[in-house]
Every structure is written in structure tokens, then in C-alpha cells.
Amino acid sequence: MNKPNQSLAIASILLLTLTMTACQKQTNAPSATDSQATPAISSTTENQQVDDNTVTDSAASSDDEATASVVEREPTKSFDMGMDDTRKATLTKSKDYSLYVFDGYTLDTATNRLQSTNNPKYYAEIEKVSSGSNLDELRNQGIKELTEYGEVKEYKGDQLAEGPMFNANLLLQVSDEKGVHDYIVWEDQQSKDTYIFRAHAPEGKESETFLTPALTSLSSIMSSGDHLSEN
């Protein structure tokens, strides 16, 4: 082969080699499509955040709906008083609480007294106190208040098992021929608000019949506002 032809062949080989190398580099380089697809991780994260927020909003909405349904109390409710005695009571509301009241009883929301409709000297006072109140201090206060009526006794545990006050935090009582006087500390299980009930059933015709319905009503007390109601 003469020199001009040899030089031409070498040049052709070099050109072919350069062309193949350039093609190989172009094939291995990331494409524009691949580059644009990389943020798909962030996009998935954003979508997950949106989904999480949606779930959170949905859960909050469910909680709101549950709360709304919980605070709605039935307008009337039947209570088993024992001895095959079932009585219906009507929901009565004050500014701070609601409770069920039986026929023959009246809730005076101005004085916070649940009383016998026909004989107001039979009554129970309702006082809402700080939820952080010390029980021992309340016990001492109750003993001091009841001492004027006679010997004060405290009942708890199994002693309250068959009565409407079985969930009471504290029950002090003076009971004799002159009547029955109770000092009760009660906690609303839904709101955790604390109440003091001072019940008085002096000697008389209603002394033996007043307390059980009255205390049953008091056991149904529930704070108003954003607190929960019965299930």
C-alpha cells in the first residue's frame, strides 16, 4: 500500500474510533428524563405529608364528632332504684352542669339546690370546687360542718356498694332520730370536676324517702361546656 493510501486508512480508523467513543459516552450519560425523575422521592414525601395531614384532619374531625355525640344527653333516663322500682328522670341543666331529676324533685339552678318540690327543707346543695382540692382538707371541712348535727361517721368501699354513692370519693354522715345529713365529695368521671353535695333530710314524713332518689340524681351530674357526657 502506498503512503497516501496508508495515511488515509489510518485517518479513517482514528475517526471511527473517536466516533465510537463519543457514542459510548453519550449512551452512559444520564438522560434529561432520568434527571427530572429524581425528585420523585421528595414528591412522594410531599404526597405522604398531605395524606398524613388528611388522616390527622379526619381523625380530628372524628374526635369532634365523637365529642359532639358524647355531650348530647338523653332528655329522659330510667333508673333502677332496687326492689323492682324503676323510675324515669328528666334531664335538667344549669349553667355549669346537668343532671337527671325525678318527679317530685326540683333543681333550683339559682341556689344550686336539688330539693323536694313539696317540702324544700329536704334538699341537697351542689357546690363545684377546684379539681385539685385536697381530699383530707375536704374531709376535715365536712367533719366540722356536720358536727353540729351529731356524731360524724365516714362510709367507704363495700359500705357504699349498694347505694347510688358507691363511686363517691368521700361520704360523711350524721344519722339519728333527728334526721340524716350527708357531706359527699364526688368527681365527674368525664370532666374530672369535683363537687361537694350537702344533703339534708331532717326528721319528718319524707326523711326515709327523700335521699335515695336525690342521691341517684346527684350521681348523674355532669359538667357542662366542652366536657364529655355519658356514653
What does this protein structure show overall?
With 231 residues, the chain is an alpha+beta fold. 36% of the residues lie in helices and 28% in strands. It has five helices and eleven strands; from the N terminus they run αααββββββαββββαβ. The protein has helices at 3-28, 32-37, 40-71, 135-146, 211-218, and strands at residues 76-80, 86-93, 97-102, 105-108, 113-116, 123-129, 153-155, 170-176, 179-187, 194-202, 222-223. The strands form two sheets. A seven-stranded antiparallel beta sheet has the order 4-5-6-10-9-8-7, sandwiched between helices. A four-stranded antiparallel beta sheet has the order 1-2-3-11. Strand 5 (113-116) and strand 6 form a beta hairpin. 18% of the residues are buried.
Mean pLDDT: 77
Unreliable sequence segments: 3-69, 226-231
> Main beta sheet, described?
7 strands, antiparallel
The total count of strands amounts to 11
Alpha-carbon distance between the termini? 105 Å
Compute the number of helices: 5
Classification by helices and strands: alpha+beta
Helix content: 25-40%
- Rounded to the nearest angstrom, the radius of gyration is 40 Å
- The shape is globular
Report the sheet-strand fraction.
Answer: 25-35%
Q: Reading side by side through the largest sheet, how are the strands ordered?
A: 4-5-6-10-9-8-7
What is the N-to-C succession of helices and strands?
HHHEEEEEEHEEEEHE
